[in-house]
Model the fold of this input.
Amino acid sequence: MPPDAEAIAEQVFTALADPSRRDILAALASGGPATATDLAVSLPITRQAIAKHLALLAEAGLVTAEPGERRRVRYRLRSAPMQVAQQFLAALARDWDGPLSALQDHLDRSAREPRQTPSANPDERRTP
Amino acid sequence: MPFPDRIERTVELAHPPSAVWAAITTAEGLAAWFGNQAGIDLRPGGTAWMKWTDGATADMRVERVEEPSVFGFTWHIYGLPEDDQRRTYVEFTLEAVGPGTRLTVTESGFAQLPEDAYRKAFDGNSQGWVSELGELAAYLDAA
Done:
């Protein structure tokens, strides 16, 4: 595990903890790169608050600033840090306890019905 | 913040390793407790799959087959985008204990981050799309 992965994940979760920042990221994800002014028009957040949030998102590497038309800075979503955080969530969401208890039930069921081959479909087995 | 790389569970099953082996390495077995439908080509490098009634699917690549004690496969990391090439490795280890089996399942690789290579590939793809979309726009403009 590279030492910065936890730092990246922490920044992502901090960034996502704020509803306004989630709105900004969602707007960039669905509508593509936008200026702070574009975002102020489409979101119920002031231009100043948006600039503050964009600075934090840029710090976390979740958006990058790029020159746009008439020298206005456009912000583009950068999803690489989110994929680091996703791996953390993937480990938490992976459920082995459910399948293993299903395996236990399956073996118990198969053993109680020795006349059936192990290859019998469980749905068929329930049919009288 | 702990970043788990590995998940490990051990269960004691009151069934011999041969029964457990059949349950985890045959299409019929896998479809009975894990997926709703399954298929498997049981040899290292073989493919295996499971489907669930809710439409979810899992595609696996068989890595280790040492009957009746070790079965390992890799699969896509749950929750990451479909095209993400990283995979976790799942290994089932069966150990006879009296008339039963101690089954250990280990899934590892959640924290794998070939960071530089990954960034390069990822940013490469992102840039790729920018230029592809630029080319498409240019093509449409010219038409």
Observations:
- Chain B has a mean pLDDT of 83.
- Residues 115-142 of chain B form the longest helix (28 residues).
- The interface with chain A takes residues 1, 3-5, 7, 9, 11, 13-15, 19-20, 22-24, 26, 28-29, 31-34, 77-81, 84, 103, 105, 107, 110-113, 115, 118-119, 122-123, 126 of chain B (CB under 8 Å).
